[in-house]
Amino acid sequence: MAEGNHTVVYLSEQVIVLFSCALSFLGSSLIILTYIIWSDLRTTPRKLLVYLSVSDWLSAVSYAFGAWRVFRTNSVDCIVQGAISTFANTSSFFWTVAIAVYLYVFIVRSSQRVADSLVLFFHLVSWGVPLAITIAAVSLGKIGYDASEVSVGWCWVSIEASDRVLWMLLTGKIWEFMAYLTLPVLYILIKRHIYIAHAALSEYRPILGNRPQSHSFSSMADVKLTLIPIIFIVLRIWSTVRFILLLAGSLARQHPLLVTLHGIGNTSQGAANCIMFVLCTQPIRTRLCTAVCCCNKCREEMQYSHDAPPSLLPGQDTSAHTEEDNTSRVRTDR
C-alpha cells in the first residue's frame, strides 16, 4: 500500500485508470467529431463544449501515459507529462465554469450578444491562465515526481518542492475549489429562472395545447442542468479528499480504494460529457444511429452484390443470356 511517502500503484489500479482514460479519450473525440461533421450543430455552447473536450482529450492522453509508466524519478518524460496534464486539467476547470457562465448570461440575463462577447475572454482565461501557471511551475522546477501522493502514477508537483502545497493549489486545487462553489450556484440560478418562466406560461397551456415532445426535451434539459454540477463534484471529490488527507498527514490517502476512485474521477470527465451531451442528446443520438445503420446497410449491400450472379451488360438481352447458360450446361454434360 505505502512505502514511506510513496503510494504504491497496483496493477489493477493501472488497468482501471487506463480503461477510464480510453473511455474519456473516445468520448472527447466523439464530441469533437460530431461538431466537425454536422455544421448545423456548431452553436456557441457546443463550441465551448468542444474546447472543454480538447482539454479533456489532452488530460486523458497525459494521464494514460503517466498511469502506464508509473514514474519513480524526475525524468524528462515525467516532467513533460506532468506539464501537459497540469495545463489540460486546469484548463478543463476553466472551460467547465465558462460554459456555466455563458448559459447563465444567455438564459438568465437573456442577452445572447453579451454571452457571445464573453467567448474571447473565455479563451484568454481558459488557455492563458493555465499556460502561464504551467510555464512558471516548470521553469521553477516545481513539476516532477510526486510519489503518487495526490496522483495515480502520473507526475504533478514534485515531492521535493518545499512549497509543494502552494503549487498544488496554484496548479489545480484552488481552481477546483472555486468550481465546486461556482457551478452549483450558477446552475441553480439557471434552473430557477427556467422554472419561473415555465410557471408564468402555465396559464396559457390550455390555449396552446399539449406539447409532449417539447415537454420531454425541457425535462431532459432540466435533468442535465441538475446533473452537470453533481457529476463534476462526484468525479473530482476523490482527488480533493486525498489532498486534504495529505495536508492532515493521514495515511488514509494511500488506501487502494481511494486511489482507484481518484484515478477514475480525474480521467472520466470526457466520457461523462459524451454521455450527457452526445448519447443523451436525442438529435445527435438519432444522427449517430442513422450513420451506423447506413454503414451496416452499405455493408450488407456490398455483401449481397458480391454473392449475387453477374448482372447483364447494357443492351444484352435476357434470352441471349439464358441461351448462353443452356449452351454451357450442354457442353458440361458432354
Keywords:
334 residues; mainly alpha; Rhopdopsin 7-helix transmembrane proteins; two-stranded antiparallel sheet; 2% strand; globular; G protein-coupled receptor activity; cAMP binding; transmembrane helix; GPCR_cAMP; transmembrane
Task: Give an overview of the whole structure.
The chain is mainly α and 334 residues long. It has a single domain (2-295), classed as Rhopdopsin 7-helix transmembrane proteins (Up-down Bundle). It has 11 helices and 4 strands, in the order E-E-H-H-H-H-E-E-H-H-H-H-H-H-H. The strands form 2 sheets. The protein has a two-stranded antiparallel sheet with strand order 1-2. A two-stranded antiparallel sheet has the order 3-4. The N and C termini lie far apart (83 Å).
User: Going across the major beta sheet, what is the strand order?
Assistant: 1-2
Determine the N-to-C terminus distance: 83 Å
**What's the number of extended β-strand segments?**
4
CATH class designation: Mainly Alpha
Cα-atom radius of gyration: 27 Å
CATH topology: Rhopdopsin 7-helix transmembrane proteins
Q: Any idea what the CATH architecture is?
A: Up-down Bundle
SS element count, helices: 11
Series of H and E elements: EEHHHHEEHHHHHHH
**What ranges have pLDDT less than 50 throughout 5 or more consecutive residues?**
211-216, 310-334
Helix fraction by DSSP (H/I, runs of at least 4):
over 70%
Portion in strands: under 5%
Oligomeric nature of the chains: single chain
CATH superfamily: Rhodopsin 7-helix transmembrane proteins
Main β-sheet description: 2 strands, antiparallel
Shape: globular
Class inferred from helices and paired strands: mainly alpha
In the residues, how many domains can be counted? 1
Mean pLDDT: 84
InterPro entries: GCR1-cAMP_receptor (IPR022343), GPCR_2-like_7TM (IPR017981), GPCR_2_secretin-like (IPR000832), GPCR_cAMP (IPR000848), GPCR_Rhodpsn_7TM (IPR017452)
GO cellular component, one term: plasma membrane
Keywords: Membrane, Transmembrane, Transmembrane helix
Organism: Sparus aurata
